[in-house]
Write a structure and sequence with these properties.
The protein is α+β, with helices and mostly antiparallel strands and 291 residues long. It folds into 3 domains: 65 residues; 80 residues, DNA polymerase, domain 1 (Orthogonal Bundle), CATH 1.10.150; 108 residues, 434 Repressor (Amino-terminal Domain). The chain has 12 helices and 5 strands. The radius of gyration is 30 Å and the shape is elongated. The protein starts with a strand and ends with a helix.
């Protein structure tokens, strides 16, 4: 049962100090927690007494559950703080890739939701976040080879296997650059450093700007829905406002798929035929698919 002390403040308002105790089932010790509640001016004495009883019972019940792991956090937690607690919880139960993607998604949530409390999340906020992400554009920067790298290696008596060993760049990336595909700028700079080439003379930088793909928005929505579903199980929120009952269907950007023409396909097939190591062939094919 809660212990309540009544106090009249200097401004005339009535304040109640509520203290509750609960037993920690793991240690067997009793732990106390306190809070203050001020009587609203528009309540009568009888109404205030009933409201005070409700506040005491609710405070004691939540503290007991929180203390013994039935309730992970209190109602004052922000959405982002709870999302980070969820992230730590799944760190050892889900794959590393799932954890990394979840961490990246929470960074995007943080930029929009900021210090909003978990129990203040509304369907309008969730829909607003998804709409903002669908309207956003992001840039991808690629390095495009503009000179003949194969001829350079031959003229300087450099074997491709030596070039890959010295730079730490795989053959698939060399091949991708050689046939005109874009590669990461840091990979291009590593190649230039290993071969003593001037980056600006050998590579052009191409910038592609487009909206987030539909699948990216769906992944953000799934992560958001998973976090809110977890909070709902903890009875911290009443509804999962990221579920399909509240959110409009996602209309996202479809990424254009590049297909090799006949000449490029023949060139790739000839190159693969000359490779002895089957693992390199698989790596090159997978890299081509992802490009």
């Amino acid at each position: 049962m809660a212990c309540v002390r009544k106090k009249k403040l200097n401004d005339g308002t009535i304040s109640y100090r509520i203290q509750v105790k609960a037993k920690d089932l793991r240690t067997g010790q009793f732990i106390a927690k306190s809070m203050c509640w001020r009587k609203p001016n528009d309540l009568t004495e009888i109404q205030a007494k009933k409201e005070l009883q409700r506040v005491c019972l609710d405070f004691e019940d939540k503290f007991k559950k929180q203390l013994n792991g039935m309730l992970a956090v209190d109602n004052d937690i922000t959405f982002i703080d709870y999302a980070n607690k969820w992230l730590e919880k799944i760190k050892n139960t889900r794959s590393l890739n799932y954890y990394i993607k979840g961490k990246d998604n929470i960074r995007k949530f943080d930029a929009y939701f900021g210090n909003i409390k978990l129990n203040q999340i509304t369907p309008i906020m969730v829909q607003g976040f998804l709409d903002e992400m669908m309207a956003k554009k992001y840039e991808q920067r690629y390095a495009i080879l503009k000179r003949d790298l194969t001829q350079y290696l031959k003229s300087h008596f450099i074997k491709l296997v030596d070039a890959t060993r010295n730079s730490g760049i795989s053959r698939s990336i060399y091949y991708s650059a050689k046939v005109g595909n874009g590669i990461r700028i840091d990979s291009a700079k590593t190649i230039c450093s290993a071969l003593n080439l001037n980056f600006d003379e050998w590579f052009d930088v191409k910038v592609i700007s487009h909206p987030y793909a539909k699948e990216t928005i769906l992944k953000l929505k799934r992560t958001l829905a998973t976090i809110l579903a977890d909070a709902k199980r903890q009875r911290l929120v009443e509804h999962n406002f990221a579920s399909r009952d509240y959110i409009a269907p996602i209309q996202g950007y479809k990424k254009e798929v590049k297909i090799l023409n006949d000449k490029e396909a023949k060139k790739l097939a000839q190159y693969l035929d000359n490779l002895d190591n089957p693992r390199w062939k698989i790596a090159l094919l997978m890299h081509s698919l992802w490009e």
